[in-house]
Design goal:
Blueprint (H helix, E strand, L loop, with lengths): L14 H8 L6 H4 L10 H6 L1 H14 L4
Length: 67
């Protein structure tokens, strides 16, 4: 219960048991709103994303090569 809003169940046989364990709990939609897909980002948007530059710099620092 300590901040667990989402559970990943990798084994299909455990799905029903997992659902029963949380049955009746209120869903905090604000907590999981960030997980909802928004569709793909265009290539230009990916290149403009600040995370791209950060990861590229990190790869360069760690390998000496740009990805």
């Amino acid at each position: 219960d300590a901040g667990c809003d989402v559970v990943l169940v990798c084994h299909p046989e455990l799905v029903e048991e997992s659902l029963q364990a949380v049955r009746g709990r209120a869903l905090d939609t604000a907590a999981v709103a960030g997980l909802i897909g928004r569709g793909p980002m265009a290539w230009a948007g990916l290149l403009a994303d600040t995370r791209y530059d950060s990861v590229r710099a990190s790869l360069h620092d760690n390998t000496g090569n740009l990805a």
